[in-house]
Write a structure and sequence with these properties.
This protein is mainly alpha-helical. It folds into 2 domains: about 70 residues, no CATH class; about 350 residues, Orthogonal Bundle (Farnesyl Diphosphate Synthase). The protein is about 70% helix and about 0% strand. Belongs to the FPP/GGPP synthase family. It comes from Ornithodoros moubata.
Amino acid sequence: MLLRPFLLQSWKRKITETGVQEKLRTAWGHERGNWVRGLRAAATTAHSCRSSSLVSLKKAGVTDTELQPLRFEMPGQMTQNRLLVRHPTDEPVEKAYQKIVSDLTSGRQGSPMAAVAKTFRQVLDYNVPHGKRNRLMAVVHTYQLLSDKETLQDNLELACLVGWCIELLQAYFLIADDIMDKSTMRRGRPSWYTVEGVGLRAINDSFFLQGAVFKVLRQNVGNLVVHQDLVELFLDANFATVEGQCLDMLSNPEGVVPDLSQFTDERYSTIVQHKTAYYSFVLPIRAGMYVAGISDPDQHAEVEKVALKIGHAFQVQDDFLDCYGDPVHLGKIGTDIVDGKCSWLAVKALQLMDNNQCETFKAHFGRGKPGEVDELAVKAIYNKLGLVELYNTYETRTFQEIEDLLERPWGHSSLPTVFREVMRAILKRTK
């Protein structure tokens, strides 16, 4: 979407008023091709205070719909004051990780298992702590926002430990996923199975990480009433993800041309719900609720509905970044096109393309290597169909739909704030 003339003039006045002319110009310049991201970048640069930014933007003529991303992006000061742990590198988070490493690898000295403990420490340190930690922080933020102020400190360490359990689960999935997809880069470093001396031992290492999840839970929550709820939640998330991965791989079986007739909205949504949304959003938010002492099934069911919708938006964003994101920021090279993945872009393209485009798509999709002729031919079709603009429209509409859900009454008044914190963490990402 192009920058509106009247809004540009308003922003010129805004630049003069705030004295950050160059910074705002830079913000717009980097994001000129994307209205929502450009708006977000400029607003974030202009103000750190949510209310003044949004009020100024509304005065500039920005509609409520266009402001939806900023509502998630800029949390109020009250929310920030409520959080004892705000950042994924805060001391309680780091201490919880070191406790997990120690508990899982200590006490083996002087026995043949000492070599195993050393290896597992390497597995942990290479694969677990180097992500964005969004899932971990979703647990910690949920716990803090839903707990009574007087008892907030009591289970803060436990919330961090449970959050790290999701990062363990994530690392287990990613190791296996890289092997299955033959991906060579993960988080800006070589995939674990490609590291010298690892190879297919990485399969066993992934099993270690999966088992570590439940060992950590037993060690730290085993004597609490919430233990069974958490174990069942993690088991459900694990199984759902495996189901989603299976359906994803069946959509583009190795050595076989993908059956594009199966690239439907329904199939895509089913893959996303199982493979991504459940363990990335349902699991951390509901886990944080359990740690905060909220176990009411009806509240958990309502939370799950919204979390799944956020998870769908997250995966659509992920698919978009795989094609249009910067590999340097992503930490990996996008391969959805050459892998023949049932991605949001592929599904939408198949709905929009004409017969000639469809023939070209079939001739190149799921073939070649990143950056070469097959991928470029498919990207050319995506560009011709206006999928960048379609994605921007989807993003804005989805923000509005989620915001509408959050405006209705909730069993706990802080649950909408929980969701906004989660949205804020993911929707500004470039990786």
